[in-house]
Write a structure and sequence with these properties.
Blueprint (H helix, E strand, L loop, with lengths): L2 H23 L5 E5 L8 E8 L4 H5 L3 H5 L4 H4 L3 E6 L6 E4 L4 H9 L3 E7 L11 E5 L14 E6 L2 E5 L1
Parallel strand pairs: 1-7
Antiparallel strand pairs: 1-4, 2-3, 2-5, 5-6, 7-8
Length: 162
Amino acid sequence: MNKVLKTFLLVVTGVSLLALTGCVSSNDQQLSVTLSNTLKGDTVQVDVAGIKQDQIGYYSNMQASQYWSLDSKIRNKLSKRTLLFYPGRPAAEVIPSNSPVWDLWDVNGDDYLLIAADLPPTVANSINWKLIIPMPYYWDLNFWSSRNGNFVVDTTGLTYVD
């Protein structure tokens, strides 16, 4: 094979591998959760936790009462960031792209984020108390149209907003 062609193929392969590696491991997205005006007088906590592919069914079928029970082993074993909303605090919280929790989820091999809201008693039976979404490095695969994951907690539960 021609030396120029070999060099060209080597460069193309190297650049392709770097690009693929960058797509999988880089995270320049952020995740934000906003409490709607309808819940601003309430206390709400939201967990953002990393989970693996084989845990999706388990968490998808879980009831809010199981997850949010006092001293819940299910909740306590997760690698998570808990966002707290209560009167006098900002109505929006952001997990920026440089937060150490992203690295923790990456090291753990987590493929998905479980976003779970402990809703006030008036809306606690919402079927939308949790969402399971792919990790941000999959967002480039057209899962989200935005580079950011923006979520709202309201009286219907959790909602993704673009």
